[in-house]
Write a structure and sequence with these properties.
By secondary structure, the protein is mainly α. It contains three helices and no strands.
Length: about 120
């Protein structure tokens, strides 16, 4: 942007703090999503806690279910959880790389709002 003076480049300590914050946020979101899947598989599919953890982890990681689902409610839950997990995986990856992209833009003085006409 024009008129803002020299570009401020964050220190390594600031960058590492941002990475730690986004990593903690992502871990919390993943933990919450995994918990939601475990509860759904345990109560709707009547799977043991260990099997529910396995199925939820596999779906959240993009691999697919392990155990067959006995009820219609369990199948509907698994379908919704799989769709949610696919979008969630991409969003979490974006959250984790945001500080890296931000640092890259600062390092090379790239301004996404500046166009070729401004030069």
């Amino acid at each position: 942007m024009r008129g803002r003076g020299p570009t401020h480049f964050p220190t390594r300590q600031v960058f590492l703090r941002r990475m730690a914050a986004t990593t903690l946020l992502a871990a919390g979101l993943i933990g919450g999503s995994l918990s939601m899947g475990i509860l759904g598989y345990h109560y709707l599919a009547a799977l043991s806690w260990t099997d529910a953890l396995l199925n939820a982890s596999m779906i959240l990681g993009g691999m697919g279910p392990v155990d067959p689902l006995p009820t219609r409610a369990a199948k509907i839950f698994a379908s919704a959880y799989a769709l949610f997990s696919g979008v969630f995986l991409l969003a979490t990856a974006g959250l984790l790389i945001a500080p890296i992209v931000h640092r890259f833009l600062h390092r090379y003085h790239l301004d996404p709002e500046k166009s070729d006409r401004d030069e």
